[in-house]
């Protein structure tokens, strides 16, 4: 995984590429929205960021560093994330992507973009692929 943090815009992006597919998630702490692009589906999903479940923006660099150290020590391999957020999809296409910020607009432009709502308990489809690997640094 690659995490990029833009302090000026209060935006973090996480990207993963594997043999099974690739995805990219943008956490926009300024607008309060998250966007995920799932490459195999050629689609984007937008949702409201639940700030009580997400790590704070200021905690992200330390969180990434902690995960990098644990990966080097092979302490994360095969272990589930400590926090997982699930979403359900609504088949309503979002047309005005510009209001979600330039990063989201750039990533999702030209793709079918849908609304996703956080759900608790049983869900129909997980779309953020363990987007929050740890919140212990909050």
UniProtKB/TrEMBL annotation:
PROSITE patterns with a match to the protein in the record: BRICHOS (PS50869)
Keywords: Disulfide bond
InterPro entries xref list: BRICHOS_dom, Gastrokine
Pfam family, one: BRICHOS
The keyword Disulfide bond belongs to this UniProt entry's keyword annotation: yes
Signal peptide: none
Limits of the BRICHOS domain: 17-116
Keyword Disulfide bond belongs to the record: yes
Protein's recorded name: BRICHOS domain-containing protein
């Amino acid at each position: 995984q690659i995490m990029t943090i833009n302090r000026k815009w209060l935006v973090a992006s996480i990207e993963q590429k594997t043999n099974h597919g690739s995805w990219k998630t943008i956490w926009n702490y300024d607008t309060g929205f998250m966007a995920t692009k799932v490459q195999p589906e050629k689609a984007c999903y937008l949702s409201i960021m639940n700030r009580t479940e997400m790590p704070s923006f200021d905690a992200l660099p330390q969180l990434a560093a902690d995960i990098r150290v644990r990966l080097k020590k092979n302490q994360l391999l095969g272990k589930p994330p400590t926090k997982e957020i699930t979403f359900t999809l609504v088949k309503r296409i979002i047309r005005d992507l510009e209001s979600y910020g330039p990063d989201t607009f750039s990533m999702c432009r030209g793709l079918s973009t849908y609304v996703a709502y956080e759900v608790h308990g049983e869900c129909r489809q997980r779309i953020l692929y363990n987007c929050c690997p740890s919140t212990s640094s909050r």
